[in-house]
Design a protein that fits this description.
The protein is about 50% helix and about 15% strand. The chain has about 290 residues and is an alpha/beta fold. The structure holds NADP nicotinamide-adenine-dinucleotide phosphate.
């Protein structure tokens, strides 16, 4: 703990679309903050506000009470936790929280590796998008020991509104997969509805206004619908990350002998978009394949 404030000293790895906002809230709350990111320039605004730059995740973890990682893919998570310059190389008696969307199996492996180093671990992925991160209104689903969750709660409350302990290691990631499966089929529905509206000669803005408060209402319709109508495909949530998430969910479903035709179709469509060069666009760019965009 910081002697001056009594607040946890926090290390933060991964300052992209989500992580930059999240780290900013922790800094604003008064936590001493050490940060790193693959591209150093993304750390500059936080350093100007008082965060300390570190060259490696290991250096971020040195002396930290809590380390949060918010990187991209499972192989990134593995590298920043277990690599030669990773968090576990320097973390001592710390609480380590991976908030990236990653695989349940990796989360369980990281919890064991953390315990072997005398640390506690949580997998705590989030939902709510960039808007949720910016406004500190994320839903956070945590897997790990109850004591670790209890220790993490005051920190997580700086980042989100709905914060739930979902069970042991890996259960946070499993819960996040449920979230991603719902989004997959919902965004396909939004694209189909808007493609139909356009083909029928309807005003898509009027359609959104009319059905947005009815039985078809959803975050995807409310947030992605207008972007699709305007042809705004900037990320938000990148297609390459959605392909990653759907691949994790489908692999887990295979293991459980569960058929998920909606997710399988969504992965096929998103993989097609990625191959066409749209991997770093937002997930609403699915509308390109339906001719639903402006
Ligand atoms: P992003 O913008 O790509 O951010 C990831 C950051 O991690 C990037 O800045 C990247 O560096 C950094 N990074 C990756 N590997 C690293 C490494 N080995 N060492 C240091 N830094 C590393 O992605 P995001 O949208 O913030 O998403 C982050 C995670 O949250 C993903 O797992 C995603 O699936 C999940 N998520 C995203 C959303 C959303 O709406 N965006 C919502 C919920 C969950 P560079 O700057 O060099 O690329």
């Amino acid at each position: 703990m910081s002697e001056a404030t009594g607040l946890a000293r926090i290390g933060f790895v991964g300052l992209g679309i989500m992580g930059a906002h999240m780290a900013g809230h922790l800094l604003a709350a008064g936590h001493p903050l050490r940060v790193t990111n693959r591209s150093p320039d993304k750390a500059r605004p936080l350093i100007e506000r008082g965060a300390v730059w570190c060259d490696t995740p290991a250096a971020v973890a040195a002396g930290a009470d809590v380390v949060i990682t918010m990187v991209g893919h499972p192989h990134d998570v593995e590298e920043v936790w277990l690599g030669a310059d990773g968090v576990l190389a320097q973390a001592r008696d710390a609480l380590l929280i991976d908030m990236s969307t990653s695989s349940p199996e990796l989360a369980q492996r990281l919890a064991r590796a953390a315990a072997a180093r005398g640390c506690r671990a949580l997998d705590a992925p989030v939902s709510g998008g960039e808007l949720g991160a910016r406004e500190a209104r994320l839903s956070i689903m945590a897997g790990g020991a109850p004591e670790a969750f209890g220790q993490a709660l005051p920190v997580l409350q700086r980042l989100g509104e709905t914060i739930v302990h979902t069970g042991g290691p890996g259960n946070g990631q499993h819960t996040k997969m449920c979230n991603q499966l719902l989004i997959a089929s919902t965004i396909m529905g939004v694209c189909e509805g808007l493609a139909y509206a356009r083909s029928a000669g309807l005003d898509p803005e009027l359609v959104l206004h009319c059905i947005g408060g009815g039985a078809a209402a959803s975050f995807q319709l409310k947030v992605m619908g207008p972007k699709i109508v305007q042809g705004d495909f900037a990320p938000g949530f990148m297609i390459e990350h959605f392909v990653k998430d759907l691949s994790i969910a489908l692999a887990e479903a295979d293991r459980m002998r569960l058929q998920l035709p909606g997710a399988a179709q969504a992965r096929k469509l998103y993989a097609q978009l990625a191959e066409q060069g749209h991997a770093r666009e937002g997930t609403q760019a699915l509308a390109r394949l339906y001719g639903a965009a402006a």
